[in-house]
Amino acid sequence: MRDAEFSAFFAAVSPRLGLRAAGYHRVGGSVRKRLKRRLRALGMDSLETYRRHLEAQPEEWAWLEGCSRITISRFARDGDVFSALANTHLPQRAAAAQAQGRSELRCWSAGAASGEEAYSLAILFRLLLQPRFPALELNVLGTDLDEAVLARAARATYPGGSLRELPEPLRTAAFERRGAHWSLRERFRVGVRFECRDVRQAAPAGQLDLIACRNLAFSYFDEATQRRVARVLTGALDPGGFLVVGRGEGLPDGVAGLVPRGPCIYERQG
Question: pTM for the full model?
């Protein structure tokens, strides 16, 4: 399967999947490898044969959509973004929650993959915020459509490469070494839960202080789907709450109710 052949195929099928082929220019190799394995399993020798298979077996589109999910993540990915959350935005939300008489900060990691992002928020909270706001607890929901990565999130054990952007003092405090892997200490798992959920559907119930939707909707979904997701996310945020997107991502034009507050961070207006 040549690169050009795969690119032409994916550009042709992505509109039906609600995806933006251009968003895959750096990670398309992962999808290509999965598709090559699928062709071998089906005994097919070309993407043209597979295209005919899609037409004859419509249920195969569901497999192709699953094949197109990118589940790469790391702890504290994009350190300047997490520094801004730790030093400015999360303290701001904690102070607002305290002033409102609430007992918790409510966060949603949409497209949580193996839990790195959800647990990163827990590490920031436990080590940097809770000493300043001892009456508050943290409630983080991590969601993804991939059951395999959600199972890894529940185990909370990671290879060293997943932690390479996490500052050393935080890594030492939050993890213990177990052979070649690192296991998250129990106190940083408290208040973090995971469930299978599609970000393109309804948001979790209740208003949220922070939503992290990074390297997912605003990279890989087509513009119409991005707009729909942006409306879901905006509606789920408490006024003054924050939406965090990935490096190089931005919201589609015309999204109302969100204003930029630094690289990758938007605030929900009242």
Answer: 0.94
- Which of 219, 220, 78, 210 is CA-nearest to residue 141? 210
- CA gap 252, 66 in Å, rounded: 24
The pLDDT tens digits for 178-237 are 999 999 999 999 999 999 999 999 899 989 999 999 999 999 999 999 999 999 999 999
Residue 258 near residue 268 (C-beta atoms within 8 A): yes
> Could you tell me which residues come within 8 angstroms of residue 69 by beta carbon, excluding any fewer than 6 positions away?
145, 146
Count Cβ atoms within 10 A of the Cβ of residue 34 and give its class: 0-12 exposed, 13-18 middle, 19 or more buried: middle
Domains of the chain: 3-67 (no CATH), 79-268 (3.40.50.150)
For residue range 117-157, what is the model confidence (pLDDT) as tens digits?
A: 999 999 999 999 999 999 999 999 999 999 999 999 999 99
Answer for the pair 60, 16: CB distance below 8 angstroms, yes or no: no
Sort 3 into a burial class: Cβ within 10 Å, 0-12 / 13-18 / 19+: exposed
